[in-house]
Amino acid sequence: MIQTQIETLTKKKITEIDFPEIDKLISTLSSDLNNGKITKKEILTMNQSFGQEFLENTIQGHGLRKPFGYSGDFLMIDKIYTFHTSPIEKFKIWDEYFHLQSAPKAVRNRKDYFKKIIKEKLNKYKKMNLMNVASGPARDLFELYEENKNCELNTVCIEMDENAIKYAENLNLKYLNKISFVHKNIFRHKEESKFDVIWSAGLFDYFDEKSFVLMLKKFKEWLNDNGEIIIGNFNEDHNPSRDYMEILGDWHLHHRTEIELKELAEKAGFNPNQIIIGKEKENVNLFLHIKN
Ligand SMILES: C[S@@+](CC[C@H](N)C(=O)[O-])C[C@H]1O[C@@H](n2cnc3c(N)ncnc32)[C@H](O)[C@@H]1O
């Protein structure tokens, strides 16, 4: 039985040789879940068989424990950005297995995607106002400011989790003259200023269609003439690590196709000629670009 196979795996000291077998087990569990042979609850119980020490000392465990109450918190994301691995030798290999998945690769790529776009715009426009919605650890900003020390970029981050803000402020201490953090749920946020770029990654894939469109309409009001909205969303047509995320990470997101993203932008009142879809190197994170 598959549960027994997983339990055996959790007791074993794994090596890289075991990775294909783990991939296969995850894929079997996913199809068993889809076919109703196993329930979501049984999978969550099975995940507990990894044991408390494992759950407290691996990124997979962080995903399952959700110490801040939700999936994809700032610390999880920063562990991805910094290639964090457990200091406990026997667990290190599990974090290495995690980092090999295409979703963490896509998350790292989206940081590079962000920096490249903002750098290009800074070269063109010299001075800009950026809104970063759901800024999380703000490592993307930290690296951007590190790599462009004298840039005239003012950033406002809207972030709902106070812990994320504390963490991001600490990381960006040197740049707090250029970055401000607003502790707010974006749905309740009112904004007086206008922005050249409104960027949000790792947020809209938690939204259903209605919230997605509602938020785009809000962003429209906050955008300068010639401004651009850029929204990241996981790709429905390509995410080889989706089973891993859902089965071993209990991390469920609204994946969307390029066409669906365009349709949502049109529902929010934008014209098709304003909309372009970009992607990072893994093609796992898509980016909806809307120009004013
Ligand atoms: C997956 S992280 C993404 C972080 C960052 N954008 C990145 O890509 O590195 C999601 C972040 O969204 C924040 N968040 C979720 N819902 C939010 C909301 N309604 N308003 C503001 N922030 C929100 C969470 O607190 C978390 O820090």
Draw up the topology in text:
Layout: H1 2-11, H2 19-34, H3 40-48, H4 52-57, H5 59-65, H6 74-81, H7 89-99, H8 102-125, E1 127-133, H9 139-147, E2 152-159, H10 162-171, E3 179-183, E4 195-200, H11 209-221, E5 223-234, H12 242-248, H13 258-267, E6 275-279, E7 285-291
Parallel strand pairs: 1-2, 1-4, 2-3, 4-5
Antiparallel strand pairs: 5-7, 6-7
Helix pairs in contact: 1-2, 2-12, 8-9
The structure holds S-adenosylmethionine (SAM).
Description:
β4, α11 (209-221) and β5 (223-234) form a beta-alpha-beta unit. The protein has 292 residues and is α/β, with parallel strands linked by helices. The N and C termini lie far apart (56 Å). It has 13 helices and seven strands. α2 packs across α12 and α8 packs across α9. It has two domains: 2-103, no CATH class; 123-242 and 256-291, Rossmann fold (3-Layer(aba) Sandwich). The mean pLDDT is 96. The structure holds S-adenosylmethionine. The site of S-adenosylmethionine has 18 residues, from α6 and β2.
Helix content: 40-55%
Helix/strand-derived class?
Answer: alpha/beta
How much of the sequence is in beta strands? Answer: 15-25%
Outline the low-pLDDT stretches: none
The beta-strand count equals 7
Small molecules (ligands, ions, cofactors) in the structure: S-adenosylmethionine
Number of domains: 2
**Number of helical segments with 4 or more residues:** 13
Described by strand count, sense and barrel closure, the largest sheet is:
7 strands, mixed
User: What top-tier CATH class of the largest domain fits best?
Assistant: Alpha Beta
